[in-house]
């Protein structure tokens, strides 16, 4: 069977594909697996009660259920839901927008496929790219470009906060928006690290992109005002040179694939036409379930008062366990400022993170190796192979057992590595490969 270049791309290993395959196997069949790798949100009882009540109302209202599942929405998405979002953003944040500035998509992954290929690729005889001013970044970005490698990424500044905690910051000395940049993209908070760019960092990027005449794409899938899984106080922002992408997934509706794009009217028109070509229309059920929550403003209240503190408490619990379990083992964790994950850095680890992933998988714990999260970085930066992403969104008992196994396996890896070094010093046969020796990346 002879495939096109497009088809051949999907015959190789793809990070997001492996992640979703592992997630499916963990949830579908083998219940002994501890799923600390996926991005599934928690099942938060008070939030699920609201969605269940709304579904009951839809079923009870004559003709509403039939219309919701039986009629196409327009390619831009459900008009009533879009109008409710416009009213919410105007009242809450004073954004100067109308219905012409919002489109719905079949999930955020769909949104970024559209946007990245809209602004990256061949244009006027030049090949344009998406600039990522801070990596690591979301695993799902890596393979959406129709023309292959469409990213240029900037290595971050690593700031040590204490012995076991660090933070990535945008290194503006290295950020330059050259002529080959079609758009700039950042996520806030960032998947995989939980990093939250400050208001000053966002404002600096806004000024740079406006001056360069390219849009700033803000991936707000975990951010404010909903689902508000963000533990820092930041200002929601949008202007006509920005594209803000939101989602209902982390609110608790990942299976309904509902993405939200807020952008200039011309961009919204293009996205709507892309939706018409790719899938005719966005799905209707997610918008229907969230409609009354948006109209009433309940979506903001429950995100602020229920969802944010729920995940903040889980993050603190997981962090405290790591500190206890890994006592005496070299490790650092990115300051958890939002999202659903802990980003662990084992500086100088004697093996690569992909091998650590395989060892943990053999012990029934699924994580995500860190090297997948550096789209646009072609260099062999050792740091890429020293990190793993762990979710704390699963049930507390699952997270607790999984973190204990991770700590135990990492401790064993370090012990084996030190034993090999001692044997090498005594002239023994075992040795550590040169590219596996600890290096300083601070």
What order do the SSEs take from the amino end to the carboxyl end, as H and E?
A: HHEHHHEHEEEEEEHEEEHHHEEHEEEH
Percent of sequence in beta strands: 15-25%
Structural class: alpha/beta
Principal-axis shape: globular
CATH topology description of the largest domain:
Aspartate Aminotransferase, domain 2
Report the major sheet: 8 strands, mixed
Distance between the termini: 49 Å
- Low-pLDDT segments: 424-442
Mean pLDDT: 90
Radius of gyration: 22 Å
Number of domains: 2
Could you give a short description of this structure?
The protein has 442 residues and is α/β, with parallel strands linked by helices.
Main features:
442 residues, alpha/beta, Aspartate Aminotransferase, domain 1, Aspartate Aminotransferase, domain 2, 2 domains, 8-stranded mixed β-sheet, 6-stranded mixed β-sheet, 12 helices, 16 strands, 15% strand
Can you walk me through this structure?
- With 442 residues, the chain is of the alpha/beta class.
- The chain folds into two domains: 5-43 and 302-436, Aspartate Aminotransferase, domain 1 (Alpha-Beta Complex); 71-297, Aspartate Aminotransferase, domain 2 (3-Layer(aba) Sandwich).
- The protein has twelve helices and 16 strands.
- The strands form three sheets. Strands 2, 3, 4, 5, 8, 9, 10 and 11 form an eight-stranded mixed beta sheet that branches.
- Residues 424-442 have low confidence and may be disordered.
């Amino acid at each position: 069977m002879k495939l096109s270049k497009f088809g051949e791309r999907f015959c190789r290993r793809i990070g997001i594909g492996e992640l979703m395959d592992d997630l499916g196997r963990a949830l579908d069949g083998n219940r002994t697996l501890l799923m600390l790798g996926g991005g599934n949100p928690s099942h938060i009882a008070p939030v699920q009660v609201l969605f269940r009540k709304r579904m009951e109302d839809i079923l009870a209202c004559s003709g509403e259920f039939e219309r919701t599942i039986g009629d196409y929405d327009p390619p831009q998405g459900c008009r009533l839901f879009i109008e409710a979002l416009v009213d919410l953003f105007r009242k809450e944040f004073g954004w100067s927008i109308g219905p012409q500035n919002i489109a719905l998509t079949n999930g955020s992954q769909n949104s970024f496929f559209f946007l990245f290929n809209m602004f990256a690729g061949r244009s006027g005889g030049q090949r344009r790219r998406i600039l990522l001013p801070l990596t690591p970044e979301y695993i799902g970005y890596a393979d959406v470009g129709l023309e292959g490698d469409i990213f240029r990424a900037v290595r971050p500044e690593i700031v040590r906060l204490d012995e076991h905690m660090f933070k990535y910051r945008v290194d503006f000395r290295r950020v330059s928006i050259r002529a080959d940049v079609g758009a700039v993209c950042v996520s806030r908070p960032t998947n995989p690290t939980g990093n939250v760019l400050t208001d000053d960092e966002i404002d600096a990027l806004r000024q740079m992109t406006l001056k360069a005449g390219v849009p700033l794409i803000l991936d707000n899938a975990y951010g404010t005002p909903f689902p508000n899984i963000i533990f820092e106080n930041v200002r929601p922002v949008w202007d006509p040179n920005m594209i803000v992408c939101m989602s209902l997934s982390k609110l608790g509706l990942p299976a309904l694939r509902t993405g939200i794009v807020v952008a200039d009217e011309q961009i919204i028109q293009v996205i709507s036409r892309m939706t018409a070509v790719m899938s005719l229309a966005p799905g209707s059920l997610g918008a229907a379930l969230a409609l009354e929550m948006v109209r009433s403003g309940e979506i903001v209240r429950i995100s602020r008062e229920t969802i944010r503190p729920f995940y903040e408490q889980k993050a603190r619990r997981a962090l405290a366990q790591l500190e206890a379990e890994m006592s005496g083992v070299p490790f650092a964790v990115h300051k958890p400022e939002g999202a659903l994950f802990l980003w662990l850095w084992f500086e100088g680890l004697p093996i690569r993170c992909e091998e650590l992933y395989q060892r943990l998988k053999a012990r029934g714990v699924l994580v995500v190796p860190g090297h997948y999260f550096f789209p646009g970085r072609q260099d062999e930066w050792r740091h890429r192979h020293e990190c793993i992403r762990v979710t704390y969104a699963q049930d507390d008992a699952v997270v607790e057992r999984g973190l204990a196994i991770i700590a135990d396996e990492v401790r064993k890896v370090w012990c084996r590595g030190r034993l090999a070094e001692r044997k090498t010093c005594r002239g023994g046969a075992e040795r550590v490969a040169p590219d596996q020796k600890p290096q300083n990346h601070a």
